[in-house]
Amino acid sequence: MKPSTRWAIVVLVVVVIGILWMLWSQRDQQQAPAKGEIAKQPVAPKPEPSPVPVTPKADEPVTASVFFDFDRSALRSGEAPKLDELTARIKGRAFDRLDAVGHADRIGADPYNLQLSKKRAEAVRAYLVGKGVDAGRIRTEAKGESEAMTGEACKSMGAESRKNQKLVECLQRDRRVQIQLVATR
């Protein structure tokens, strides 16, 4: 190695050591606060209160449909907002009852599907009661697989088995509870 190259490396090492020592000695010193204005968060204008509360018309139908996973009666988390909206729509409204009608797809035995649809309707009822709806005003009914929404659409999907995922997905609309408000006359 040439002497000039050695000297260049030595000078470079000394400069790096000097910079590191300078940074090391200043690490305990607090930095001065930055000068200038502090940015302010924009303030959203407050919405004006509506002069008249919006209530549903007496003849306006109040309905909702919530869907369930295959062979399950537990309410999906994504379906809860539908029931929350329904609860908000009926607050302060005179009505006789809410009908919650449970349904099942055609996979499985009829008695099992009837029981499953009953459990689904009861799950919806329990959720609505938890949201403050009077339990005595909610009527549950089970239809099993008797009122399929899919009709003939899923007929040629293959074997009626839980292992046939294509059929299970096609029958999704049949696994539901339909809720309807029965208004006071």
Description:
With 185 residues, the chain is α+β, with helices and mostly antiparallel strands. The chain has a domain at 63-150 and 160-183: OmpA-like domain (60s Ribosomal Protein L30, Chain: A). Helix content is 33%, strand content 14%. It has four helices and four strands; from the N terminus they run H-E-H-E-H-E-H-E. It has helices at 3-25, 80-90, 110-130, 165-170, and strands at 63-67, 95-102, 138-142, 176-183. The longest helix has 23 residues, at 3-25. The protein is elongated, with a radius of gyration of 33 Å. Residues 53-57 have low confidence and may be disordered.
Short summary:
The protein is of the alpha+beta class and 185 residues long. The chain has helices at residues 3-25, 80-90, 110-130, 165-170; strands at 63-67, 95-102, 138-142, 176-183.
Main sheet strand line-up: 1-4-2-3
Q: Which CATH class of the domain at 63-150 and 160-183?
A: Alpha Beta
Average predicted local confidence, pLDDT: 83
Number of strands: 4
CATH architecture term of the domain at 63-150 and 160-183: 2-Layer Sandwich
Distance between the termini: 104 Å
Please, what is the CATH homologous superfamily of the domain at 63-150 and 160-183? Answer: OmpA-like domain
CATH topology of the domain at 63-150 and 160-183: 60s Ribosomal Protein L30, Chain: A
The coarse overall form would be elongated
Low-confidence parts: 53-57
Strand content: 5-15%
What kind of sheet is the major sheet? Answer: 4 strands, mixed
The string of secondary-structure elements, in order, is HEHEHEHE
Percent of residues in helices comes to 25-40%
**Which structural class is indicated by helix and strand composition?**
alpha+beta
Radius of gyration, in angstroms, nearest whole number = 33 Å
Number of helices: 4
